[in-house]
């Protein structure tokens, strides 16, 4: 399946000085990782994160980008600006952006297009609300999110797409999806990718699980055949816990 990738999503946490300290604590603990390791930091922490990760095996992600290259969009950051700084990855479509800041499948698709055009790798987040799971429409919801976001994405560009399946009800709640629930949806997404592209392309995509993944439950989640990594919130701010999750991804 896809290459194992463990990414931290720090959300709106850590000042630049704190970010430097956290990366310096994480780096020695993950230096022998057999998976890819990424930290997704607030925009203002990007310079210090790029500096602190230089010469390490840790990649740096931003947590969003705008779809235009520049212009009258107060408060926004473009994909080109991230690329110019040396940022390699961007998290897009996180449920917190969709829920609190009005991101939609369509704007996530536009952001994805801009990020790919700028040469970035996208961590595309999808996932259902609890009500949707209870209604039995999880597959339809994630299919819609995946299909709209990847609408204009070529088979070649798919190598710069990582998908993070994050059931909204599991984010920050301590309520993790079961191993089987996580695998079921990740496998479903892979099937959808196969229908959009082909089997070989679908197999090569890293599909992460996210939602209360921690040092205690990571190993069994990551052992599932269609779970190729994790997008980690709270536990990514704790160096030892994050390193335990990274070590479990093999
Ligand atoms: P938690 O790991 O804190 O549940 O957050 C998951 C998440 O939203 C990662 O993007």
Descriptive overview:
This protein is of the alpha/beta class and 250 residues long. It has a single domain (5-248), classed as TIM Barrel (Alpha-Beta Barrel), CATH 3.20.20.70. It has helices at residues 16-30, 46-53, 79-85, 95-100, 105-117, 130-134, 138-149, 179-196, 199-204, 218-222, 239-248; strands at residues 5-9, 36-40, 58-62, 89-92, 121-126, 161-165, 207-210, 229-232. The chain has an 8-stranded parallel barrel, surrounded by 6 helices. β3, α3 and β4 (89-92) form a beta-alpha-beta unit. α1 packs parallel to α2. The structure holds 1,3-dihydroxyacetonephosphate. 1,3-dihydroxyacetonephosphate binds next to β8.
In short:
It contains 11 helices and 8 strands.
The end-to-end span amounts to 12 Å
Kindly report the CATH topology: TIM Barrel
Shape-level CATH architecture = Alpha-Beta Barrel
Q: DSSP helix count?
A: 11
Task: Output the keywords.
8 strands, eight-stranded parallel β-barrel, alpha/beta, binds 1,3-dihydroxyacetonephosphate, single chain, 15% strand, TIM Barrel, 250 residues
What topology emerges from the helices and strands here?
Blueprint lengths: L4 E5 L6 H15 L5 E5 L5 H8 L4 E5 L16 H7 L3 E4 L2 H6 L4 H13 L3 E6 L3 H5 L3 H12 L11 E5 L13 H18 L2 H6 L2 E4 L7 H5 L6 E4 L6 H10 L2
Parallel strand pairs: 1-2, 1-8, 2-3, 3-4, 4-5, 5-6, 6-7, 7-8
């Amino acid at each position: 399946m896809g290459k194992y990738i463990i990414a931290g999503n720090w959300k709106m946490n850590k000042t630049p000085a704190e970010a430097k300290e956290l990366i310096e604590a994480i780096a020695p603990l993950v230096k022998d990782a057999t998976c890819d390791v990424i930290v997704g930091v607030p925009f203002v922490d990007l310079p210090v994160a790029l500096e602190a990760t230089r010469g390490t095996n840790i990649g740096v992600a931003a947590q969003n980008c705008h779809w235009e290259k520049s212009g009258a969009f107060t408060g926004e950051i473009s994909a080109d600006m991230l690329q110019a700084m040396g940022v390699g990855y961007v998290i897009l479509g996180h449920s917190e952006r969709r829920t609190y800041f009005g991101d939609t499948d369509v704007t996530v698709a536009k952001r994805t297009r801009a990020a790919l055009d700028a040469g970035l790798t996208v961590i595309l987040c999808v996932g259902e609300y609890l009500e949707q799971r209870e209604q039995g429409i999880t597959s339809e919801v994630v299919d819609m999110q995946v299909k709209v976001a990847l609408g204009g994405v070529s088979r070649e560009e798919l190598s710069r797409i990582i998908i993070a399946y994050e059931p909204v009800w599991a984010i920050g709640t301590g309520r993790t999806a079961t191993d089987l629930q996580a695998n079921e949806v990740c496998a479903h997404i892979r099937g959808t990718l196969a229908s959009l592209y082909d089997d070989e392309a679908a197999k090569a995509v890293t599909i992460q699980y996210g939602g209360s993944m921690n040092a205690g439950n990571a190993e069994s989640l990551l052992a599932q055949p269609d779970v190729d990594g994790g997008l980690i919130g709270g536990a990514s701010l704790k160096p030892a816990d994050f390193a335990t999750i990274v070590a479990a991804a093999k």
